[in-house]
Specification:
binds zinc ion
Length: 683
């Protein structure tokens, strides 16, 4: 499972989902440039790998080998996302690099954007919405461009002419009726036949469902993940799986992955980690899903290694039937400093529980904090590249999770890059009331926001207890909004507590104001940029933020604690009394905990309906108008750092250097050249 941006706290989720632009940063803490470029609805960012230099040589070697293993799988995902993706990508690349005509015409420029989008999506469909891209260039232009380049650079099938290549791919690119969606979820249609993803070939939805239903034993308490690592095909009337393994489908790429995993095995940090890598290799060699489960169990139990990784067929979001997994890889190492932060918080869990403003009868006598592991990503690959999650929770098999637990991690340097890139993108400059708040946000908001997330995740959800006899599901449809509000309020109340300064988690008593301001600004105004005109707020996290912000605004109205101030005809949030805001957060926390503990459905309904759902249409229109002018890209992805092994005369690796200066197209073309592991057509 992946943790997406939406599940984060208000300000971060908003900044990261809405950041972008190329403007100068007013206050720049460091010179690293987090932004790369922007096109279509995408912004490309860059992330840093702090702490890499401090790893031991052996750990660096391990990271290096694992990053190579990660990059070798790139072509697999392209083919999984659609059977023509590799042919189309390679044709576009041949024209992009080899075209001798005018590269400044609108047609060529539009083709360039199209190719950049194909790279980003690992195919011709949108990475998020899954709809097919509409090319901005003509078939006539593209045909003459293809004909003009050196034919040996084109992905021609054996005996295929250039004209036949065009016939093969033009309908797929230009005809909107051909393969319109990568994953179709429309109820009532044959989801397998109408989805362009390449997980099934020649079979209907019913045939696929029947095939797997016949395999399953309902009494099996440790079932394998049926269908996870294969394409289901009908050949000569017979339905069968083509398994992704060495010697099977995608074998050429998996062989290369295994080659680098074998090198990684020689520099594993400890026997447990070595066993993890060995088992993964065995799985890639056999395609046996029992072996995959054994690997997953070894992996989840390996908690002492500094370096860790995901490499394999993992998430099933790309299959309309939710069985087949896209290939992905993430190489990472533990962020000791940030993990220490969550450990401090969770080891003080009882103190926080005891001192909260919640009524004593709803507090836990014994509370245990959860310590979240924060990791630093070293490379993103496959389905985590360029667009990535900010956290992951694996393995996915329910019985393994129940018996052996799971690893839940937050990717600290990715979150940090989103934050840093959002600095100076014009968003805060547009919506924040004055330079005083702006300066405070620049100085503290990244830190306080992380801390708020930690408090929310490590303590908030685990705090409090149900009253005897209360129904834990009694809040029905309001349950998740109330639960998120409870966790958010716990974090908001404590982010202003002197205890955090005392524990060394915050530098001073000013910092919390950055979090209070951005939270209220988001809840009262700026999160509305995600709502279509005329709609109300539906999503639980957004309702929760609106609820908290509007409740505090209303309750403090008589004393003007928080106001919606006007300046030059624009509306701004202005906080006049931060200490009172904290008191109000505490009062609401106590009430929300009471509602939760006693399962007071009517009170939950009133809170959510009165404060969490409604949108002021005039303010909404103003916010949308101001946001539109900022011209920010809604989706983001990353270029990877580049790793280079330094070797001695005997070829031994003596160091690994990391650099960050590669451009987007440059990196994509390098990957296409150096990691071309699969043929253009994989049957
Ligand atoms: Zn939560």
């Amino acid at each position: 499972m992946r943790k997406q941006l939406l599940t984060l706290t208000a300000s971060l989720a908003l900044f990261t989902a809405c950041g972008g632009g190329q403007k100068e940063t007013p206050v720049q803490a460091d010179k690293f440039d987090y932004t790369v470029e922007q096109f279509a609805d995408l912004q490309i960012l860059r992330y840093r790998v702090p702490g890499f230099e401090e790893l031991t040589l052996q750990q660096k070697q391990l990271v290096y080998y694992l990053t190579e293993a990660a990059l070798q799988g790139r072509d697999i995902l392209f083919d999984q996302n659609g059977k023509y993706n590799l042919v189309i990508r390679r044709t576009l690349e041949a024209v992009y690099t080899g075209y001798q005509g005018d590269k400044t015409t609108p047609d060529f420029k539009a083709m360039e954007v199209y190719l950049k989008r194909v790279w980003f999506s690992n195919g011709i469909h949108h990475h998020y919405g899954s709809e097919k891209f509409v090319p901005g260039f003509t078939p006539e232009f593209f045909r003459q461009a293809i004909e003009s380049v050196d034919a040996s650079t084109l992905p021609l099938a054996e005996g295929q002419t250039v004209a036949q290549l065009c016939e093969e791919i033009f309908p797929v690119i230009f005809n909107p009726k051909v393969m319109p969606k990568r994953v179709n979820q429309a109820d009532g249609e044959d989801l397998v036949l109408t989805s362009a993803c390449n997980y099934y070939d020649g079979v209907t939805q019913k045939e696929a469902e029947d095939f797997y239903a016949a395999m399953k034993d309902p009494k099996d308490e440790t079932p394998i993940s049926y269908g996870l690592n294969s394409r289901l095909v009908k050949e000569n009337g017979k339905i069968q799986e083509k398994v992704w393994k060495v010697g099977g489908l995608y074998g050429q790429a998996l062989e290369k992955i295994v080659y680098w995993l074998e090198k990684a095995e020689t520099v594993a940090e400890n026997p447990e980690q070595k066993a993890v890598i060995a088992k993964l290799i065995a799985y890639y060699r056999t395609g046996d899903l029992k072996t995959f489960d054994e690997y997953a169990i070894l992996w989840v139990k390996d908690l002492n290694s500094r370096v860790d990784f995901v490499n394999g067929f993992t998430e099933n979001y790309g299959d309309p039937l939710g069985m087949k997994a896209s290939w992905e890889s993430l190489v990472n190492f533990k962020d000791l400093e940030a993990t220490r932060r969550t450990e401090i918080i969770s080891s003080n869990a009882q103190w926080f529980e005891d001192h909260s403003p919640v009524d004593k009868q709803f507090k836990k006598e014994q509370v245990k904090g959860v310590s979240a592991k924060v990791i630093t990503a070293a490379i993103l690959a496959g389905d985590l590249y360029p667009s990535t999650a900010i956290g992951i929770n694996l393995p996915n098999a329910n019985w393994i999770r129940a018996h052996y637990g799971s690893k839940s991690v937050t990717i600290g340097n990715i979150t940090d890059a989103y934050n840093k890139a959002a600095h100076g993108n014009g968003f805060n400059e547009e919506f924040v009331y004055s330079s005083e708040e702006l300066a405070r946000i620049d100085q503290y908001a990244d830190l306080t926001d992380e801390l708020h997330t930690d408090l929310h995740e490590c303590l908030g959800h685990g705090s409090g207890k149900m009253a005897p006899g209360a129904d834990p599901d009694g809040l029905k449809a309001y349950g998740s909004t109330i639960e998120e509000a409870r966790a958010d309020l716990f974090g908001l109340y404590y982010v202003a507590d002197p205890k955090l300064v005392e524990l060394g988690l915050l530098p001073d008593g000013e910092a919390y104001k950055a979090q209070y301001y951005t939270y209220l600004m988001n809840g009262l105004m700026t999160q509305l940029v995600r709502i279509e005109p005329g709609n109300q707020i539906e999503e639980a996290h957004m309702r929760n933020r609106s609820l908290i912000a509007h409740w505090v605004y209303e309750k403090g109205k008589a004393d003007n604690v928080v106001e919606l101030a006007k300046k030059n005809g624009k509306t701004y949030v202005k906080v006049n009394d931060y200490e009172r805001v904290r008191i109000l957060f505490g009062e609401l926390l106590a009430e929300i905990q009471r509602v939760k503990s006693t399962s007071d459905l009517e009170a939950a309904r009133r809170l959510v309906e009165d404060y969490g759902v409604k949108v002021d249409p005039v303010l909404h229109a103003e916010v949308l108008e101001r946001y539109k002018k900022l011209n920010l890209a809604p989706y983001k992805g990353f270029v990877n750092p580049r790793y280079e092994a330094v070797t001695d005369a005997q070829g031994n690796i003596t160091d690994v250097k990391v650099s960050y200066n590669e451009g987007y197209a440059e990196q994509m073309l390098r990957y296409s050249r150096d990691y071309a592991t699969l043929p253009s057509r994989n049957n």
